[in-house]
Amino acid sequence: MTDSVIHIFDPHATASTSDGTTRTHPHSISDSAAVLSELASSDSNNVCCLVSAGMLPDSDTLATATDELISSNATIGILPVAGHADLAFAWSRLPAAIASFVTPPESRGAVLLNASRLHNAPSKEVDRPVQELVIRTALQNQDSVVLTGSSATLNASPLPAVATELPDLAPQRPRSRRKWIVNLLKQLSPAEYLSGEGDSCEAEAILAGLLQLNNFLDESHNHSQSIQGQGQDVNGDYWHGIMHRREPDYGNAKYWCRRVGSHPCFQQLPELAQQAFDECPSSDAAHWKSRLAGESGWDAAAFVDLCEATERSSDDDLTTAAKRIQWAEMLILLEHTYRQASGQ
After folding, report:
1. pTM of the full structure
2. Which of 111, 233, 266, 310 satisfies CB 3.0 to 4.6 Å to 298 for a cystine?
3. Percent of the chain scored above 90 by pLDDT?
4. pLDDT given for residue 152 in this prediction
């Protein structure tokens, strides 16, 4: 068993503290560039666990994940914490170089660093230095970043927890400090991570999806529009429709819903929507549950109506349910796009 040095980032702490192998930093993990630089330049052989306050895994889970990281000879381990199965869903179904772009792993769990193998210095000019380090490491060698935690893939669901940081239904364009992720996506060639004889247009659809997940709607639109009508399930058209729904241009979104027709991802969405509405205290939850998760199956146009309704209302609970469903929808579609790109 290998011990871990735990770095906890707590913006509510008043000062830095050190207690044995646990160190607390009085700021957010998004301000961790200095700590990452120190770890990258050190001669330590420790495994370091970087985690936000409130997300620290239990000692047994951390010990197992640490041992898995060491035995894999990887540099970084992604460890989802309880309640964040959507992180495990992405990392267990997608190559690391693609999964690393989906969401900041530190927002859903702990990130383990094998200090003896860590050589990349983090950038100080980004809003998510941990995720940026994970992405750059995976792009250089995707085997150097692994999913850890022996039970991480059990019951992995694309539906995120209620109290989770999620993209808006109609997002503002990301600030300039987030532009780094677009620059790194330009270095991603999805074809390098595909196996089998898949449809080449799906590589473009993967890029459209990753940009959509990160709220870069215009850039996503460029990729989805370039493969209009192509592919067995026209996944690019589906991403195109999501883009217009979030723009928001609800009429245009419904047009693309009709273009897509019945999509294989629709089979999974009613059950996930039902769970989201069952966990939603809004008085309107039952109405939307019957429209989206009823006997007739998934209605993509009705989901557009829900997104439009939340824009006009002040029902935060209903908005949260819609955001959770949207996140699950995009993860399912990204996985489906990747499988078709790989010929699966």
Report:
1. 0.95
2. 266
3. 83
4. 65
Q: pLDDT digit string (tens) for 160-191?
A: 999 899 999 999 999 988 999 999 999 999 88
Q: What single letter denotes the amino acid at residue 211?
A: L
Q: Which among 152, 146, 149 is positioned nearest to 117, based on CA atoms?
A: 146
* Residue whose entry in the numeric block shows the structure tokens 């996506």: 185
Beta-bridge partner residues of 23: 7, 18
- Rounded distance between C-alpha atoms, residue 100 and residue 110, angstroms: 14
Output the CA–CA distances (angstroms, integers) from residue 161 to 30, 84, 242, 290, 306, in the order listed.
21, 6, 21, 22, 20
